[in-house]
């Protein structure tokens, strides 16, 4: 039986410090949300769900020609947990693994998203997280057995509580350059990878999420 994974791109939050939504910032000739959605589609995922909230209409317009499922999170002001619940609830019944990514990850590659899902299928670990700078963070893959726990998340803590309290060791996929931030002036000028097989990079780390999980030394670790 083919094991099918889905990618959930979280893009519901507001960017109060900018004159325009971060999701609509220009990036490589398109917008950040288009780049994130196209990256997810190229990963080989059976389904791509994009969760929108603030500025939903403008973001939907950018995605109207892409084969992604756009779902509205009416509770987006609660925090990231509400978007995770919304995304998991929108997945089709054939999806047995969900890779949850954030919109503002400009150097995430299809290879990274695919690798996270593959490590889950190969190892049987319920959670496979990206690791960098001695910590773990998004994007991360979650097996179907973890879906009920994701649906119980509340507030603005994301999935770090599940990662921290996991009763079994978590697989961590290591990659370099994972701490590049979209807020940095040069981030929007980064050159995209030329090959899908080259080492993936995760460029977003929410400060609270990054501080939340324990050090990577507690996890099984693989090099991407």
Structure write-up:
It is a single chain. The protein is α/β, with parallel strands linked by helices and about 220 residues long. The protein has a single domain, classed as Spore Coat Polysaccharide Biosynthesis Protein SpsA, Chain A, CATH 3.90.550. The chain is about 25% helix and about 20% strand. The protein has 7 helices and 10 strands. It has an 8-stranded mixed beta sheet with strand order 5-4-1-6-8-7-9-10, sandwiched between helices. Strands 2-3 form a two-stranded antiparallel sheet. Helix 7 links the parallel strand 9 and strand 10. The protein is globular, with a radius of gyration of 16 Å. It starts with a strand and ends with a strand.
> Which term fits the overall shape?
globular
Spans of at least 5 consecutive residues with low confidence? 184-191, 193-224
Report the sheet with the most strands, covering strand number, pairing sense and barrel closure.
Answer: 8 strands, mixed
Number of domains: 1
From the 3D structure, determine the CATH topology.
Spore Coat Polysaccharide Biosynthesis Protein SpsA, Chain A
Helix content: 25-40%
Proportion of beta-strand residues: 15-25%
Structural category is alpha/beta
Please trace the helix and strand order, writing H or E for each element: EEEHEHEHEHEEHHEHE
Task: Walk across the major sheet and give the strand order.
Answer: 5-4-1-6-8-7-9-10
Q: Regarding CATH, which class?
A: Alpha Beta
CATH architecture: Alpha-Beta Complex
Q: What is the gyration radius calculated from CA atoms? A: 16 Å
Overall strand count: 10
Measured distance between first and last alpha carbons: 25 Å
CATH superfamily: Spore Coat Polysaccharide Biosynthesis Protein SpsA, Chain A
Q: Given the structure, what is the number of helices?
A: 7
Mean pLDDT: 79
